[in-house]
Fold:
Amino acid sequence: MPGWKAWAADRFGLKPIADNVLHRRVARGPWYYGDGATLTLLLGVLVLTGALMTLTYSPHPDAAYESVRHITYTQTLGWFVRALHYWSAGLMVVVLFWHLFRQLLVAGYKPPREGTWLVGVLMFFLVLVMSLTGYVLRWDQRAIYALRVATVIFDRIPWIGDELVLLVQGGPHVGALTAARLYAVHVVIVPLLLLGLAAFHVYLVILHGVTSRLERERPVRTAEEQRALYKQQERSERHGEWFYPETMVRSGRFALVVLLLVLGLAVFAGPRELMSEADFVTESRPAEEWWWSWYSGLVGLLPPAIAPTFEWLFPILLFLLLVLLPFIDRSPRRGIRRRPVAVAIVLICAVSLVALTDLRRRSPWNAWPRQTPPEVPAGYSLPPRAEEGRTLFARYGCSTCHAVAGDGPSFGPDLARLPVPYSRDAMRDFILRPSPGAAMPAYAERITDEHLERILDYIHLAQTFPRR
Amino acid sequence: MDRRVWFKRLIKGATAAVTAALGVPAVIAALSPVLQRRRGPDWRPLGPLDRFQIGSMTRAEVGAGPDDWTRPLVARAVYVWRPGPDDVVVYSRACTDLGCPLAWDDGSGWFLCPCHGGMFAADGQRVAGPPARSMDRYAVRVSEGVLEIDLNSLPPVA
Structure:
């Protein structure tokens, strides 16, 4: 070691750190144990890009939206910084779920790692807080309604609902006080907590090691048994390795692949597009960020009797369940062998997350005002009466819910492809007086006989259109 | 008593005292927005009553709030419905499910929610989707021919 390096290592006390962090024997883990390193790297990217944006961002309703536009469209490379922040945030949520599921599968919460687990659970929920407050700072329509939905859910908590809303908004109205506190939460308070907890988490991982191979192969009852088993593997040539460089190369590979994905998405997809500026005036069709879609889908799927309670109770129950898990699951087995319940739960959760995200993306329950009538397929033309019916089809809002021959929304059935054939008379009756329970307005007394007949002419002819 | 035992107690006691001296005011200051009591009515004009035709649903806007540094987002769109000459209803645009912004579909004569498919008829009754309540209505009054609503007649999230 050159003289100055030895000097620095001594005077800055680096040698004990290097010996305890880098130059130590550890139990070898598979490639997918690199998720922790990936989360650390993403945290670094988020802190860096977030700090860069605070140099420009202005947390006041007068300027917030314009400052985000400035970062995106005017500032040199501002779009890239914002895109990196956005995609790192999204992928952090994805990798965090992976990390959680992986720990459930290997039973990373069992002795002596209960403390590591509990710190991790806390961080999991703090990241979820970040993943909501972050995009509210954008101050566009998506932001204001994400905030609104969150406060409506808080409002439903018994006893303290109203007070929670005031606490989040900083007052009875959304405004500068709201933006200031969300900024403080997203940029100062939670990041400080997260950085501290992340350091603590890593310290505990270094202290207790990762769930090793032999732990997953044989029952381990106590912390002492685990420690003896771990020590044996550390020393062995077959089950152990040097953290630096062997473990770091393997974990770093996972982290780099994810970072490349983030870079690719940032360059080719860019930052999240902005909706119009936040207000309660503009007509808009906001939706949550994609990493929250599963929860939105789940809430949309639940029966109305349960959903309002579920929305706020579920996160609390999930938190309690995760906190108590090390004390509930006392079995000596770790890993996926002979732990069918853990495997089943993780599988169900993972599949549900994907399925619910897809459900929310399709949102089959949604209809939205649509004033354009369905198109007539190429090569077909309608006689004047049916053509008039096609125009009226849009005027009476039929096109808001129904497609005709494949063109249009899928809220109601495609009227040219009805599952059960309707006679002209039956359809007329249904339009005037839909059967009870059908989510369709009654047109009796709202439509003239003439107009109704034209619409029926159109639908009748459309049934001869080819499939798209 | 042993000096060291006494010192240990002193350290613990001093820590608790300092924590309380700083922590209690900090918690009170942080929670202070909660202490705000609901204020009295806040009447805002929507325009001359004659502007709102009988039997139709009309979009109207409440103007911006006080021009102070807190910039409350008071400005909002509402829907005015006049079922009869003596009757006027002003709906909040917030879906009673999760607060998403309802859109009036003139063709079908229903309100549609962009989030989970809540739908309401012109009379404010839920007709489809998850909402449990009818649409929220502001308190209204007509003052010298001008339709006014009380913004504080609905909770902050409505």
About this structure: The beta strands of chain B are 43-48, 57-62, 76-84, 87-92, 103-105, 110-112, 119-121, 126-128, 139-143, 146-150. Chain B touches chain A through 50 residues (CB under 8 Å).
